[in-house]
Amino acid sequence: MASATSTSQISGVFAWEALDSRGRPTVGCEVTLRSGARGEVVVPSGASTGTYEVHERRDGGEPYGGFGVRQAVRAVVDVLAPAVHGLDAHEQETVDAALVDADGTANLSRLGGNAVLAVSLATLLAAADDAGLPLYRYLDDSGLPPLLPLPMVNIVSGGAHAGRLLDIQDVLAVPVGATETAQAIEWVWRVRTATGELLEQQGEQASLVADEGGLAAHLPTNAAALDLVTRAIERAGLRPGTDVALAVDLAASQFALPNGRYRLAIEDREVSRDEWLDEVTRWCHEFPVVSLEDVLSEDDWAGWVELTRRLPHVQLLGDDLFATHLSRLDEGIGRGAGNAILVKPNQTGTVSRAQRVVQRALESGYACVVSARSGDTEDSYLADLAIGWRAGQIKVGSLTRSERTAKWNRLLRIAAELGDRATFASRQALGGRRP
């Protein structure tokens, strides 16, 4: 990062109640520096949230059905702004430590993780502006060519993202055979288009979209969604598994039962953990699956270890399992649970915490996927984070809805500007031992 100067001190913090892509309130924030540099952000919010995420402060009461965030906004203005006033924006760790100290709780429950993250992210953006650098360059001091991430793109949605039309949450396309960003996005566009055509042939509406822009449809089984996207890859003139592969976000904590079993509502059946692992393993043999996310509930460490033993060649991605928390990632590394982590800054509350998680994961041989949330915003900084942190993979939703395309468009622009001065991550970024 750039060196600090006396003019890079935080001189002003402004906050307001904004809206996310689902129409729910969220926190907007602008941080201004003495130099006149500024950073503005509207923080995202998740629908499928894990137990171990930091606390998101909501007002309750009648306005916005209880989802208002005016108390979080007041926390920014009355408590967090004074806590960081005069601090140097280039000292992100110091700023974030002051924010966490001002809250005083482990999960940011007093002031709200949404309030804390708003100031943390806006400070980072202001610091990059002060340095006169694109955010991805400001973050990456490796001296290596920028690493453009492999996209993971939502095609079909269920779970909490699509009214539970499926038990599993998302089936995504991963352009593992692409050699550049533009090609990767175009290939996935062809797959999404072909999926819509196949749905229409089946009498489904291809115009129904979920929270993250994926297609929403009534399908008879969860496996039918994987079969649909596999056939769409072929229809698009691409080779399943070679050109484009599948990633599946199961979000199993959403349909796990207290007794350790799993309830598949659309199929009207209940299975044990071993039966569920058997089924998911069959999917990996029948379909070109390269990544599985949250296959089991967030506290089933033993099950995750067994899953990793069974499918060492597949990327086994922990979202609710790790919740972008260093202590949970360390526990997973120690146990041998999973081989990849989904990184969402709003799960952990500050930029510094999220960056430390990325660093620890990559140093430990775990793959990283920088991810958006279902209730996201029109900000595009996530593309820069994925590049600047050299994460290798990015997941921001589908290729429709402007809060999604804002990130893809930022990634496409950076790739076009850099040309052959950047490296495209491609298949090598995936976790799991390739066969």
TrEMBL record:
Protein localization: Cytoplasm; Secreted; Cell surface
Entry similarity comment: Belongs to the enolase family.
InterPro entries found in the cross-reference section: Enolase, Enolase-like_C_sf, Enolase-like_N, Enolase_C, Enolase_N
Keyword Magnesium: yes
Co-factor(s): Mg(2+)
Pathway it works in: Carbohydrate degradation; glycolysis; pyruvate from D-glyceraldehyde 3-phosphate: step 4/5
Domain Enolase C-terminal TIM barrel: 145-432
GO-annotated biological processes: glycolytic process
Active site: 212, 344
Domain of life: Bacteria
Cellular component, GO, one term: cell surface
Protein name (Swiss-Prot/TrEMBL): Enolase
HAMAP family: Enolase (MF_00318)
Species: Thermasporomyces composti
Alphabetized GO MF terms: magnesium ion binding; phosphopyruvate hydratase activity
Function as written in the Swiss-Prot or TrEMBL entry: Catalyzes the reversible conversion of 2-phosphoglycerate (2-PG) into phosphoenolpyruvate (PEP). It is essential for the degradation of carbohydrates via glycolysis.
Binding of (2R)-2-phosphoglycerate, residues: 169, 344, 373-374, 395
Stretches that traverse the bilayer: none
Residue ranges constituting the Enolase N-terminal domain according to the UniProt record: 10-139
Coarse class of the protein's main subcellular location: cytoplasm
Enzyme Commission no: 4.2.1.11
Top enzyme category: lyase
Cofactor comment text: Binds a second Mg(2+) ion via substrate during catalysis. Mg(2+) is required for catalysis and for stabilizing the dimer.
Gene name per UniProt: eno
Catalytic reactions on record: (2R)-2-phosphoglycerate = phosphoenolpyruvate + H2O
NAD among keywords: no
